[in-house]
Write a structure and sequence with these properties.
The chain is built from twelve helices and no strands. The protein has 276 residues and is an all-alpha fold. The protein is globular.
Length: 276
């Protein structure tokens, strides 16, 4: 007896077709708004001379983490400048910053709600498991019919891929607040919002910052993959080197990605220690 095949793929394609046709006006509006924000941030960073932006980043590193990170940032960014990858690095940084901001804006309220509601927690955890185990390339598929080829689709796929750690760590941080402190706040007559904003969130901030750090790292990795759908930046340099069989150019762009990732990682870790 032959068991009929479930047409899951056809159902998904039909659903995507219906969504893109019914909400095309909404997606076009979101695409225009997002592209305007990306262009504004990218043009602002491009407007600064290379040496001025390098000096500002070094000063920020020195203020947050000390002289060692500042020296390392100067050396790494100077190497990227010397390799002629400064503009692609700025484009990658713009996409990472924009995607991280959107992911955090969505993830923090969802994580807080999941921490305060056991029912929502039980519902959202399997969804996060699904989002994290799904291959990253799959997120590029629905991005194209919604937003077309380009940076906006890269932002869409990056936000979905990088958001789960921020939700998980926010929920974990709030749930790990000692019960004794919650009971003390209740004894002093604190309202639910006062407990959240004056007790739970301040104490969970280091854990929340760890989640944001993971979100930034995942966003950076996804932005490189998103070069396959037309995203600019260092990922496009790697993809172009693969297509033209130029391993040297590919390794140069890869080293630039590593330098940018290390810089962002150390900055967020130092900010986490400062908050702690």
């Amino acid at each position: 007896m032959e068991i009929p095949r479930i047409p899951l793929g056809n159902w998904i394609e039909s659903g995507l077709t219906w969504l893109t046709s019914e909400y095309s006006g909404v997606t076009r509006g979101i695409s225009r708004f997002t592209q305007t924000g990306i262009n504004a941030l990218n043009d602002s960073l491009m407007w600064l001379p290379e040496w001025a932006l390098l000096a500002l980043i070094a000063l920020l590193c020195w203020k947050l983490a000390g002289s060692r990170l500042a020296i390392g940032a100067v050396a790494g960014l100077a190497l990227i400048w010397n390799l002629g990858l400064w503009n692609p690095m700025i484009e990658t940084l713009t996409l990472v910053v924009f995607a991280t901001m959107v992911a955090v804006i969505i993830a923090l309220p969802v994580g807080i709600a999941a921490a305060l509601s056991n029912r929502l927690y039980r519902v959202i955890m399997p969804v996060l498991d699904f989002m994290q185990t799904m291959p990253a390339f799959v997120y590029l598929i629905p991005a194209i019919p919604f937003f077309g080829i380009g940076s906006v689709s890269a932002i869409f796929a990056t936000v979905i891929f990088s958001m789960p750690p921020a939700i998980r760590f926010t929920t974990l941080g709030i749930r790990q607040v000692p019960v004794e402190l919650i009971e003390a706040a209740d004894a002093y007559g604190a309202t639910r919002s006062q407990k959240l904003f004056k007790v739970q969130l301040p104490l969970s901030l280091p854990t929340v910052m760890a989640g944001i750090n993971q979100t930034i790292m995942l966003a950076l990795s996804m932005v490189v993959i998103a070069a396959m759908i037309g995203a600019d930046g260092l990922g496009s340099e790697v993809w172009r080197a693969i297509q033209r069989l130029r391993p040297g150019d590919g390794f140069e762009a890869g080293i630039a990605v590593v330098i940018l990732a290390m810089l962002l990682d150390r900055l967020t870790q130092s900010l986490r220690r400062t908050r702690q």
